Each structure stands twice: as structure tokens, then as C-alpha cells.
Amino acid sequence: MLSVMRAIHPVIAGAVITVAAAIALAGCGTVHTSAAGAAHAAATGSTASSAAQTPKQRAEADAAMLLASFVLPPGAVRLAKPPDVPGGYLKTPITFLGDAYQVDSTTFWEAPGNPHTLLNWEISHISHRFSLGDADFGVAWDRSFELPQIPGVLTSRDLVVEVVSVGNGRTGIRVDAQVGWQPPRPASDKVPLAAHAVTIAEETSMETGPGMPNPVTITDPRLVGRLAALVNALPISPLNGIAVSCPPGIGSWLSLTFRVSAAGRVLATVKTDQACAGAVFSGNPNQDLALTQTSYFDQQILRIAGLPWKIG
Known about the structure:
About 25% of the residues lie in helices and about 30% in strands. By secondary structure, it is α+β, with helices and mostly antiparallel strands. It has a 6-stranded antiparallel β-sheet.
């Protein structure tokens, strides 16, 4: 069983805020022009060049575009490092999840005005392509601005703006571009072609489950292949390998055990509806793998297997 595990797109043109407007507002044209130029190059890159990039490289390019989308408040000055604020505010990202599949690019600024006013100014001036995400208010204020995922490539695309007063009527600003990317599943973390049988069982978080059906073993090569392909198509969860606070699986779920034959050696197992509503794959002896499953994954399994079970 997996100890609770954790984990994030062609770059979207038009999300970059007009360079001239930002320069006029910032009085800091050289820095912003450079960032906007890089973002424009990323946003207008050819389809062929995007296809040649790895998911991580595309996440890095997308992060550069997100940073350039931050609209500088009037009088903003870029800083080389976080301002020295009591309590260590602005020194670490607000929402960075810390997994191997996320890029975090950061810039620091200082501008006249109070945190509340500057954050509201950003909300009213940032591109309409962004939707408002999480917000937090206290000594430091922050707000996230989100772009849609790019399925199979980028799992999250967030611009996080954190502001805190640095005294003398000025506010320190931390801007994080956080982009999650989808890693490919290696062959060692998939059901192998040598699997010629699969046993499907219903399991429960309770010691015994009322009316639990008996496990069913399938040896039809066509059905075994379809079930293996269904499991192998699940993407790696962005929560994989990182401890997070989320409840374990509750109610009942499905367990699939793939073997070389009906009574042969176990090659791989998968359990649905586990912690963080994901599936857990066990095949590589060195690790369990957290997978992102769809809400109808159980029903797909039962439909392929021809089983009338009710899972919940």
C-alpha cells in the first residue's frame, strides 16, 4: 500500500500583457522588455518546435510567459532578492508543492502603496485569460491567477502574487510562475505484455464488506489486454512520491492483480480510489506509483470485464 503520496502546455499566445503598457507603468523598461521578449518568443514558437520540447522544457517556457504576464504596478522596481521583511515573508513560495514535476520561476519587486491596494490593482489589470484562484490574507496577502491545463503536457499553470508591507508606504512583491508538467510512465511502471490473466476483486476499508462479490479471474487475452491498456493509460499523479495530508480510500474499491497465468506469478497490481482519490500501481519492486484516475475508472473496468458490481 502506498504511504500517502503526492504530486501539476503549448504556451498560450495572448496571455502576455502589452509590453508598452507595462513599461510605462513600471519605469523599468529594460528588465520588463527582456522578460516580455522571451515570453513573446515562447508564445509564438512554431508547433514543430513545441512538439520537439520535453514536457519539462515546455513547462519552463510557459513559466517564462506567466512571469511576463504580471502587470507591473506604477513605480515598481525589480529586486535581486526578497526584501528583508520580519517573519521571513516572501522568501519561500506560497503554494509550491515541491514535487519533481513542477517548475517554479520567481521575480521580486517593490512598489509604492499598501498590499491590499496593489493586489487589487493586479486583479483589475492582468489579462482576462487568467481566472482568479486561491487567496490568502493576513500579514502577507496573496492571490493566484490560473490558466487552463494542457492535457497530457502541463498539469497546472499558476501565477501567484504575494504582497507584504515593507514600511514607509511601500510594498514588497513576490511573483511565482508555477507550472506542473506531466512525466511519462516508464515501461517498468506498466502492466507488462507477459500478463495473461487478471483477477478483479472488490476491497473495502472495513474488515468485512456486506454482500461483497467473489473475486473473478479473467484469462481471455482480448479482455486482459484491454484492462492492461486501461491501467497503462493512467498518468502519473502530480502527488506521486510526496507526503500530503489527504484521507485514505474509504468505502470500497477495485483491486486488479495481473499474473503470467491464472495461478502464476504476480506481475503487477492496481488499486482504485485510494488516497487523494487516485489509483496506486505496484509493479516495480522498488516503489509504488500514484496515478491520476478518472471518476469513471471503476465503471470502465467493470464494463470491460462484464461485471455488474456496484462500487462505492
